[in-house]
């Protein structure tokens, strides 16, 4: 048990808010090699491969995740560190022939794999991804922490790669508080020429 | 009163039959103290307020508060009334002491907290094929409660793991998310009763089944289902909360078969239609939960078993198509197409089949067929939430 507690403490330290985040503010921020966004306010940003996690108060309170180009055969996002001592299984992967309903299914399976419960999507519809045509759907789930969360995702498949912005936050207070700001930021998404 | 006699007789018989196990169950009074056997909880009994057992009940009460408000708890009155009814048939005078929470959760598990909180995952209803099999699991859990197995196992863990961890592990076993630090290993350490405890709970369960008139052979049959599901699946054993907390099913199956020979009532019942009537409506939803785990081998085995015994061909063939479509290995789109085609028009196949069919037709390059399937889907579901996206997909396939 002692060993477990030490491991847990180390994991907390590694996965904690202080580590790997840097401040992002100003006119435009580049995300990966192909995308940029105009931050509204000052966000904390963590870069994880082709994913970026943006948060104002900490990832448990709101996460705006950018998937900046998942290629055929790649998972949507890296496995969160908190699942470190659970049996590893390959995360579900994106395929470049996927339709929007399949992308919504992929996100549900990914969240489920990473410990969310009762993940559901609804309201899939065509929507703007910045100025480009894309799709959007809402998502609801119970987080590993036990918090009931909700959010929405916008996506676009471009040059056989999947680009997404996924906003999730606890239903209580945080989701409503920041959704307007996130919506406005999503309008500013641009693919780099 | 009849129940009181039945359960009393059942428990007395277990004490006699399981004497070595009973003798091994000792209090934790330290070395030098003569071992004290636990007495069964009596109906409506609560532990003495000053006892460590009362402390454990308090922790379980805390966990129960969280379970009560969890969005994962199934509120469907028909399901709750049915499961509660089976518990009461089995538990008799203990009926009022046991609170059942059905938790929407893929995979199979049931757990019992020391204070009488029983949780049952909805995934279990895909593995049990009749009421007698469900009774086998519920009876087993009642056995843990009456025998106070949790107290024996968990009292020394409070020191080791701390109160919050205990509450967390109770929630984890209940299928209610409880934070990232509650691991499968911890749930296992809190809930892995000794083999003797498990054997004893199986035996209490079998005797309660027999007392309520159920066919005890179905308890063994349930384990046949579980073993079949694990076939060819190397990952399963290490992943499941269930197998972190219970002994090997093969062993239990053999023991239960022997018990059935000894105990079975003269006219044993299985109540299969009653069971089906409650859960048939939820088959697709529960299978969808299961498929979201993307354990394809296990899921395929599960479908095979259900297809063999359950007259729900539309649902099963559709979900087999979904499995192939999502697995997306070489050749899977074709297999999905075959499954969808076989399911189309069968009772129980949902309209979304046409959307899925369109997707695989599109993947296979048959754009005209895809457009037609999407079109049929929109005809049948004109108000579908995703209608606009489907219209875009039809255009893209032109």
| Total number of strands of chain B | 3
State the helicity of chain A in percent bands. 10-25%
Structural class of chain A: alpha+beta
Neighbour order of strands in the largest sheet of chain A: 1-4-5-6-10-9-8-7
Gap from first CA to last CA of chain B: 73 Å
Number of helices of chain A: 3
Content of β-strand of chain A: 35-45%
Main structural class of chain B: mainly alpha
Which chains make the largest contact? A-B, 39 and 40 residues
Average residue-wise pLDDT of chain B: 84
Task: Enumerate how many helices of chain B there are, as a single number.
Answer: 22
Strand count of chain A = 11
Tell the overall outline of chain A.
globular
Shape designation of chain B: elongated
Helix fraction of chain B? 55-70%
Poorly predicted ranges of chain B: 1-5, 13-36
**CA-based gyration radius of chain B:** 24 Å
| SSE topology string of chain A | HEEEEEEHEEEEHE
Biggest beta sheet summary of chain A = 8 strands, antiparallel
Could you characterize what this model shows?
The complex is a heterodimer of chains A (193) and B (398). Chain A has 193 residues and is α+β, with helices and mostly antiparallel strands. Chain A is built from three helices and eleven strands; from the N terminus they run H-E-E-E-E-E-E-H-E-E-E-E-H-E. In chain A, 22% of the residues lie in helices and 39% in strands. In chain A, the strands form two sheets. Chain A has an eight-stranded antiparallel β-sheet with strand order 1-4-5-6-10-9-8-7, sandwiched between helices. In chain A, strand 5 and strand 6 (63-70) form a beta hairpin. The radius of gyration of chain A is 16 Å and the shape is globular. Chain B has a three-stranded mixed β-sheet, with helices on both faces. In chain B, strand 2 and strand 3 form a beta hairpin. Chain B has two domains: 2-263, no CATH class; 282-396, Tetratricopeptide repeat domain (Serine Threonine Protein Phosphatase 5, Tetratricopeptide repeat), CATH 1.25.40. With 398 residues, chain B is mainly α. Chain B starts with a helix and ends with a helix. Chain B has 22 helices and three strands. The A-B interface holds A 1, 4, 8, 12, 82-83, 85-87, 89, 92, 95, 97, 99-102, 105, 108-109, 112-113, 115-119, 122-126, 135, 142-146, 148 and B 66, 70-72, 104-105, 160-161, 171, 175-181, 183-186, 189, 235, 238-239, 292-295, 326, 328, 355, 359, 362-363, 385-386, 388-389, 392-393.
